[in-house]
Amino acid sequence: MRSPVLPLTWHLARSAGRRGLQSQLLAAGAAAVGAFVLLVMIAACLGSGARADRTAWRVPDAAPAGSATAVQAMTTTYVRHRPVTVVSLAQLPDRRPTPAPPGLSAFPRKGEVYVSPALAGLIRELPARQLADRLPKPGRYGTIGAAGLASPDELVAVVGRAPGDPAVSKSAESNGWYDEGQTARAGITGFAGSRPSMFTVGDQQTALLGAVLLMVPVVVLAAAAGRLGAARREQRLAALRLAGATPRQILAMTAAEAAAVGAAGALAGALAYAVLLPALAEIPYGVGAWYTGQLWVGLPWLAAVVLGVTVLLTVSAVTMLRQVAMSPLGVAQQANPRRTRMVRLVLFAAALVYIMASAGGTMTNRQMIALLALFYGAFWLFGPWVVDRLGRVVGRFARRPTTLLAARRLSDDPRGAWRTVSGLVLAGFVAGFFSVSQLGGGFPEHPDQVAVITENTAAARHTATEARALLDRAGVEATVSTVSDDDFLDSVLLGNPGVVARVSGGTERIDAAATALTPLGKGRFPVSQDYVSAPDATVLDRIATVSTATLILSFLVATASAGLTAAANVLDRRRVYGLLRLSGAPLKVLDRARVRETVLPLLVLAGGTTAMGVFGGYQVNEAAGSTMNGAGALLLAVCVTVGALAILAAIGGSRPLLRRVTADPAQTAD
Q: Tens digits of per-residue pLDDT, 463-507?
């Protein structure tokens, strides 16, 4: 016998009218946003790993001296504060030919220079004395293909050298701790590198942290989508249950409807992601924009996200029907307020104690993610309990109708009220974490210095004379002096002997000085503050980028969740609003009550999660041996204020819907 579930579900969906269609469209929209954000997060993580793999060939993997076929030296110079990676290659005589590096069609011969498209554009844009004169001057520049680049914005050059050229000699080897990842030399047999560039190696880990922090707001949005229209659905299905429908049929009807809506929304979000890939690829991260293919997650991930969002939305909708299956008469009469139990407080306290006890010391990435997931889960249990108690306390001392109505709503349906604010409450943790976790270095900076490393102090005195002549010929005003091994903090050489030129006039003069002093480096480019600060600055830049993106997306998702939930609540409670209007309650009072039932739990709960975020950021700073970010308090205040205003604006966006729903209170109440 054919099951009546699907035909009946279709019939009820069609007969739900305009109000039911609005709820379904809102749910599909939330599912689309959730799927889109999830796919973007996954794309950023996978794409960061793919970009790092494309840079591994630049860092030479040493081969035994007897089997090496070429010498590879990598070094880094800076122009306009941007790193330029220069890879020098020399084929050894009487050895078998070395394969071509990625992005080139053949191994470069002596005198050949290949540059990335972005570097070629910069060479044409800047005066030669600021950049081009640092490299050999070929008849024409070759172009490095996309296979050898992590980003279309990367500045990379490959230079063919003679085996005896100083640029590939032992003097081009790493000479200090700050050379790590920026300067290296070794004999090679090919380009199957295993160590990504310093400028890409940490991108995936930082992107993963942002993705984990964004995961919960996205899950909250998808769960809220599954509960849109819950009150209307409960009333309808309770009537069917009283008419003889079995609990299994009720659950099957709900699952079918929610799965159809969720799948449609998730597919729409996946389609939007695919269509917007070229635009997403233009968003810079780390070394620059993306190649479009790096952000394509593939069909398996695409299908997994669509399925995951659909399942999450379906499960969220089905879990709301437990009361319908157990007591359909109570649901039909709205006789049983949804109280919360004290066990939620006990579980939250236990989880909090465990997290604080485990937060100290060194933790792996997996442990940090596990603790973060535990915190989110614990606060998700704790939130409705706080809202329930808050509603009871406020209702007991309420002196105004708007406050009394808001308090009654909080205590009657604490889970529903919690869902409205949960996105911003949990986003407060992200804001608190990133506002103080911006690490800072501990060494003094010398942005006006350009230096050349020498073998010893005696060689530095001779090099200083040449440096003055070169700078004078280039028209750069600078004070040239020598430094010894003992001058650790007074120069960018940090304890290495050499010559330091203190340049006045800004970035252009610094670049000109670095170009003028390049011949003195004996295979190494002059050292500037950008070079010395690069290891720390790279990490700081990635954290700053991910924190900004995470904050923006968290508040956007939280705002969308609050707006959708507020609109659905208006549709679900249209009968209650109609009765209140018939009893004489002004529309302004009802609207103010809606706002207060959001503001009250927001003030209480957002403060708690924000404090926990600050604590987490402090733990990261302490583990890194860094001080707190001085601008963190201002950033935190701005984030929380903007987020709260966005939530209130989203709730205010459903005010016209409330006006339409209560336009004919007699019909609405019926």
A: 888 889 998 998 888 888 888 766 666 777 777 788 888 998 788
DSSP letter, residue 179 = G
User: Cα separation of 544 and 428, whole Å?
Assistant: 17
Half-sphere exposure of 216 (CA within 13 A, CB side): 25
Residue 520 in tokens: 């003195």
Residue of 604, 570, 566 whose CA lies nearest to 393:
604
Pairwise CA distance, residues 576 & 608, whole Å: 32
Q: Which pLDDT band holds residue 329 (cuts at 50, 70, 90)?
A: very low
Scan for tokens 């509603």, then name that residue. 391
Give the residue carrying structure tokens 């076929």: 69
CB 56 within 8 Å of CB 87: no
- Give the 3-state secondary structure percentages of the chain, helix then strand then coil, rounded to 5: 65, 10, 30
Cross-sheet strand order for the sheet of 113-115: 142-143, 113-115, 156-160, 82-91, 70-79, 184-188
Q: What is the DSSP letter of 342?
A: T
Name the residue with tokens 């306009």: 80
Output the DSSP codes for 566-592: HHHHHHHTHHHHHHHHHTT--HHHHHH
d(CA 154, CA 124): 16
Query: What's the pLDDT tens digit per position in 330-370?
Result: 444 444 555 678 888 888 888 888 877 776 656 666 677 77
Q: Strand runs (DSSP E) across 323-425, as ranges?
A: none
The C-alpha atoms of residue 365 and residue 201 are separated, in whole angstroms, by 15
Cα 668–chain centre separation = 45
Distance separating alpha carbons of residues 543 and 433, to the nearest angstrom = 11
Q: How does 415-440 read in b/e, with b if 16+ C-beta sit within 10 Å? A: bbbbbbbbbbbbbbbbbbbbbbbbbe
Question: How far apart, in whole angstroms, are the C-alpha atoms of residue 193 and residue 72?
Answer: 12
Find out whether 391 and 411 touch, Cβ atoms under 8 Å: yes
pLDDT in tens, 644-665: 787 778 778 778 878 877 776 6
Contact 152, 289 (CB under 8 A): yes
CA 284, CA 35: separation in Å to the nearest integer? 22
| Prediction pTM value | 0.80
- Give the C-alpha separation, 611 to 617, whole Å: 10
- Burial, 531: exposed, middle or buried (Cβ in 10 Å; 0-12, 13-18, 19+)? buried
Cα dist from 165 to 48, 106, 180, whole Å: 35, 20, 22
588-618 residues labelled b (16+ CB within 10 A) or e (exposed): ebbbbbbbbbbbbbbebbbebbbebbbbbbb
- 478-483 and 449-453: which strand pairing? unpaired
pLDDT for residue 343: 86
